[in-house]
Amino acid sequence: MSRALPWIGGAALVALPFVYRSPYPLHILVIILIWSFAYTSWSVMGRFGLVSLGHGGFMGIGAYVTALAWNYGHVSPWLGVPLALVAGMVLAAVVAYPCFRFRITGHYFALVTLALSGIVLQVITATRDYTGGSLGYTPERYHGGSSLWALQFSEKTTWYLIALAVWAGGLYVWYRVDRSMLRYALEAISEDEDAAAATGIHVTAEKLKITVLSAGMTALAGALYCQYQMFISPDTVSGISVSLQMVFAVVVGGIYVSLGPTIGAVITILLAEVLRISFGTRAVGWDNLVYGVLLVLFIVFLPKGIVGSLLDLRRRVGWSSS
Amino acid sequence: MNPLAVFDIFLLEALLSGVLLGGVLALLSLGLNLVFGVIDVVWICYAELIMLGMYGMYYLYTVYHAPIWVAAVACIVSVAILGVLLHVLVIAPLLGAAPINQLLATGGVLFFLQSAATVLFGIEFKNLGLRLPVLKVGGMFVSYSRLLAFATALIGMVLVYLWLTRTYTGTAIRAIAQDRQIMPLMGVDSRRIYLVTSALGGALAGLAACLLVLQYDVHPFVGLSFGPITFLICVLGSLGNFVGGFVAAFVFAEIISVGGLYLDLEWGYVFAFAFFIVMMFVRPEGLMARRS
Lengths: 322, 292
What we know:
A: mainly alpha, globular, B: two-stranded antiparallel ribbon
């Protein structure tokens, strides 16, 4: 039964837009799926104690490289998105390699990556002649509206299916990492780097692999966000607040379980939407107010997040999973 | 281009304004450094405490017309109380937790304070409406408020230094920063020391707020514009090392100021951040010196 559950759930999610076509809920679902994918990308490395505050930078690169390549080079996103992924991964490798080589861990790693997301944000703002700076940037509309070549679609259903596929891909990557030797190596490293190295694990190489993977996925999330929203600004896809938002959602959902980041995205985005709808402009700030309090409460009382704590509870009560 | 042209009056002015900015940055990083060195916790929300202090100054001075000295003292005391509250409510329950959890919890406080300010004060930019004169020295313009901030920063740092080296509590604080396991056995009440340190860290944030509000408009997200740079300064100068932080503040300020002269101000920040990352690779052992 529990083996069939993901397939039934997946089929239901695929069938959903053909049964229920209301545009606003679909829009919210697409946004939730894209951010779930971004949060999953973060947790792929975050779960091993590699807390990066630089993922806002990778996401910004994904979004801006795709949009700039399209507007200035007339490069189709089919080429622009891989280009953006490579850019994000190269940046990750350039910064992370010396970090791991010189054993910059914990606080220090978080602060180096914080500087990285600061750099990306400031570069986007400083090159305002090309990127529009803090006013944001719009990829040019393809004249026909929808086009596979331009990766622009006017119907929400198409975007929903694309986002769903990418999100499922993200979960698959999470699952593959979970079942790999890489996971055991990284868990050993997060416990004790010296002991891990003594058992023959190449610490720098293993950490670099997961970081580059995670950065590439995050850049893809940024590119997807850009193509869907058709508007990007440094504050919504890049910078320190985006990085913190990722960490926050993952911690609330659960950092050590595959669906944790997704649950985190559902909770945070729905909370923001509900507050926005019920209070309108008076709600400005209230969503983050609630987030902040929740984040502190979660770290103090439920460090494993909602999903992780529920799983623990289930284990303790003694329900079997099959 | 004539190579001598770089030694022009604008460069001198930029260098001077870098020195003055360095004083402010040094003051900003002092409180954070103290808290880190003693409690071993990074207050990610440190800049938001300063932001609240700036609002405090704005409301007391501009809205309620309190004399500026009263406003400043009230502001320093209340931010010190906020520092104590932060320690008691958030840090104390997490003292035994993984360092990264402490970092994230103060990140939650950052969200909370930012949005609390948005809800309470709105997102409009507010300023004190107080214009201090600009001094003209040999063809260069020096803002009086920056000079004041610089001087106060220096005096503040000397006072903190004297307090740390000449009083019993200060000595206990330095001792606990060196070895937090052994000091409780020597009869030092570490809880009390942590509270005193948090209060002092908060008070320094309040002092920084009083000086920053003279130069900058306050809005709920003002913390993001100087918060990250403050952390980087502390890390660059070895977290917890006051002299290192002091030197790093001036290096950063000069990079921002001179970089901003030739290109945009944003590029100054880009250079400063890039410099930080490179320095982390070049001198990691210096940065790690205080970690056991």
